[in-house]
Amino acid sequence: MHLQEKTLSSEKKYEGVIFTITQDTAELENGKTAVRDVLWHSGGVCVIPVTDNNELLLVKQFRYPFQTVTVEAPAGKLNPGEKPAECGRRELLEETGCTCREYTFLGEMYPTPAYNSEITYIYMARELEFQNQSLDEDEFLDVIKVPVSRAVEMVMSGEIKDGKTQIAVLKAARILGI
Q: What string of DSSP letters covers 6-70?
């Protein structure tokens, strides 16, 4: 049972709108037990939209836990039964007012694998078509255009702190050869 842990028990500690938290007891490979707090999340999607001029459409929004405005790629939580690709297209339209003709899967990431079950699926959108933004009633954000090379600088300097956005920007830049 090398590099494996067996769940012996699980107790739900919190159930909210976005996630559930359990406290589990796990058997380790040496036979001892450990307590594991786990945040169960349905997953999310991040889309990095690229204009014909090699600009990225990013969003600025207030993030409550940090009490600050962040710069991020458009993203959102998967709804029950929703496929990641569909979620990404929905979020792209809602947050930026765009649809796209080219949609490329860039991979998935585990934002915080030590205690969080979330998987974030990352896509790149190109050949954008602009329509109307349709934000949720509790969503407030500004869309900004940032040249890909400047976005890479923002990642490297720490100006973009969001992990999913950092990965999406760097993958897009690599694919685009910028």
A: EEEEEEEEEE-SSEEEEEEEEE-TTS-EEEEEEEEE--EEEEEEB-TTSEEEEEEEEEGGGTEEE
How is residue 87 written in tokens? 């979620």
Closest CA to 1 of 26, 22, 37: 26
Q: Is the pTM of this model over 0.90?
A: yes
Burial 97-114 (b: 16+ CB within 10 A, else e): bbebeebeebeebeeeee
28-37 pLDDT per residue, tens: 999 999 999 9
Active site residue ranges? 137
Give the residues across from 33 on adjacent strands: 27
